[in-house]
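FAQ

Q: What does a record look like?
A: Structure on top, sequence underneath. For example:
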């Protein structure tokens, strides 16, 4: 378009916003003078969109709901021409649109409703130089798409189209979006509803990604654990991590017993500690022993330790005798074999049947085969047994102890049965160590003179009535009882109790005397009278009876001689 040489001349603003050259005449009928038009200025894109929206609103009957744009206060050259062209375009659109009933007026007035547009004015003819104005109205009318609604003004109420959102043509799903449209979009414009993602779906998608992440982490952790289990040593070697082989501290408080057997060396003890869970590894304890300048010595036995101790703590505990675990069993002198086995079982926890089985096979303990049983060959004393010992080991300890006493007393092996049988009889009939030597003399004098020993204790043992020494006349005459010293001469066939060292020594070294009888005259004090003749013996028996009457008078209860020494 050629520049108009008259543009730079002075222009006068007209009341309708139209600028004309100075001195230009305006026809009286209101028709514009073609010669007075300034050169054409194309409308802006915004003005075109707003015009299209107004045209479409008029077609749909929603024009009152469309907010008109604010007028531009600046004087624009050719504004009158643009307004005339706009009016012509509006008239053409109204002529082609089908008649539409007027919309009902809203109940309340809206500040956004603009007054009805004035009737369209005919477009005056234009000059040839400005003939392009003749194409503006048809082109604008043709450019308006009857199928697309005009964009709604932000903040305006919904139109009567059912509350549908006002969208640009390029907002419709499937419509291409050009670069020009991207730059012309309103920042507050909404995307199509069909393309929006609901909050529920967005939340579900977030949870899906969370579960995927957790699954990946679990797979990674499982893989790392598998690698660690299968290749721990290699991983530690690569990373330079030393594998610990020792605990720290003095233990976890859990009691653990460990037995040190005689003859074991340091590596054996180290293995025992590791197997029991005292130390983490056997190397921890063994390396500690090797590093010591002076090697420690270990006392055989069972020790009370704790679980998860350091090697140093375990060594210190093994050196402390207070940690030795023992089972103390008291076997008094004069105890018989069944009672002895029961005490051993109660004290050690070893079943009684195990002791009875070993005692029945007494020759395995070194007891002479001509002995009727193990009775008398197991030494009575107070024993301390370690846990884990068997019945065989325990009874062997008692048998060895008796052999030690006999050897110390100078008893020959082939004389052991006789000495123990004699000593067991003295042990059962005596009330004190002093009386043992006198009673041994009485029995020895009777044996020397060929008289019967007449021991009620031996008869009671043969009958199985081991809780009493009182016997009946029938029992005294029973010769089938091989322990009956009333009917059979000499010593019984075997020991009737477990004699101690004093009883053994009294048999080998009896007191000097010619006594043939003895009688307990005061059970409370243990006083015993030894006599040479039978009448003297009867006086001692009468003295015992008098004491018993006095005891009953004092206590109101007859004295029970069961288990006590009577007369002999």
């Amino acid at each position: 378009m050629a520049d108009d040489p008259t543009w730079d001349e002075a222009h006068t603003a007209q009341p309708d916003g139209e600028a004309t050259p100075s001195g230009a005449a305006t026809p009286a009928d209101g028709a514009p003078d073609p010669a007075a038009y300034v050169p054409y200025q194309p409308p802006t894109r915004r003005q075109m969109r707003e015009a299209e929206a107004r045209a479409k609103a008029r077609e749909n009957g929603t024009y009152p709901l469309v907010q008109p744009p604010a007028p531009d206060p600046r004087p624009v050259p050719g504004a009158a021409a643009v307004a005339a062209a706009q009016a012509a375009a509006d008239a053409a659109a109204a002529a082609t649109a089908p008649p539409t009933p007027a919309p009902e007026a809203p109940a309340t007035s809206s500040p956004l409703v603009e007054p009805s547009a004035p009737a369209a004015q005919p477009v005056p003819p234009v000059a040839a130089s400005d003939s392009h104005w003749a194409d503006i109205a048809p082109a604008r009318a043709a450019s308006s798409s009857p199928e697309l609604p005009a964009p709604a003004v932000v903040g305006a109420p919904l139109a009567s189209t059912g509350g549908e959102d006002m969208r640009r043509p390029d907002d419709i799903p499937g419509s291409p979006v050009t670069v020009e449209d991207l730059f012309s979009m309103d920042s507050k414009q909404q995307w199509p509803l069909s393309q929006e993602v609901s909050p529920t779906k967005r939340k579900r998608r977030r949870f899906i990604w969370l579960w995927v992440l957790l699954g990946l982490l679990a797979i990674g952790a499982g893989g790392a654990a598998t690698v660690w289990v299968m290749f721990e040593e290699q991983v530690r070697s690569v990373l330079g991590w030393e594998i610990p082989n020792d605990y720290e501290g003095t233990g976890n408080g859990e009691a653990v017993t460990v037995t040190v057997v005689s003859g074991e060396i340091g590596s054996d003890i180290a293995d025992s500690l590791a197997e029991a869970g005292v130390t983490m590894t056997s190397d921890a304890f063994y390396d500690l022993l090797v590093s010591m300048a002076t090697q420690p010595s270990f006392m055989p036995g069972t020790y009370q330790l704790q679980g998860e101790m350091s090697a140093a703590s375990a060594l210190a505990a093994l050196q402390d005798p207070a940690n030795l675990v023992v089972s103390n069993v008291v076997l008094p002198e004069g105890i018989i074999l069944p009672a002895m086995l029961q005490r051993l079982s109660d004290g050690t926890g070893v079943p009684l049947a195990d002791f009875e089985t070993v005692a029945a096979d007494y020759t395995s303990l070194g007891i002479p085969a001509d002995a009727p049983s193990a009775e008398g060959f197991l030494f009575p004393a107070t024993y301390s047994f370690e846990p884990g010992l068997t019945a065989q080991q325990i009874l062997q300890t008692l048998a060895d102890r008796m052999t030690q006493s006999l050897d110390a007393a100078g008893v020959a092996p082939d004389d052991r049965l006789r000495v123990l049988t004699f000593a067991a009889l003295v042990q059962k009939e005596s009330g004190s160590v002093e009386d043992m030597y006198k009673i041994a003399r009485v029995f020895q004098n009777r044996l020397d003179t060929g008289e019967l020993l007449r021991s009620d204790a031996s008869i009671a043992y043969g009958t199985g009535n081991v809780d009493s020494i009182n016997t009946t006349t029938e029992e005294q005459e029973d010769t089938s009882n091989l322990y009956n010293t009333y009917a059979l001469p000499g010593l019984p066939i075997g020991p009737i109790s477990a004699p101690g060292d004093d009883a053994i020594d009294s048999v080998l070294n009896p007191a000097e005397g010619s006594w043939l009888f003895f009688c307990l005259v005061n059970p409370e004090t243990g006083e015993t009278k030894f006599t040479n003749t039978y009448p003297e013996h009867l006086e001692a028996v009468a003295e015992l009876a008098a004491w018993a009457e006095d005891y009953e008078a004092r206590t109101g209860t007859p004295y029970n001689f069961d288990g006590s020494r009577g007369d002999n």
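Q: Is there anything notable about this one?
A: Residues 366 and 399 are 7 Å apart (CA to CA).
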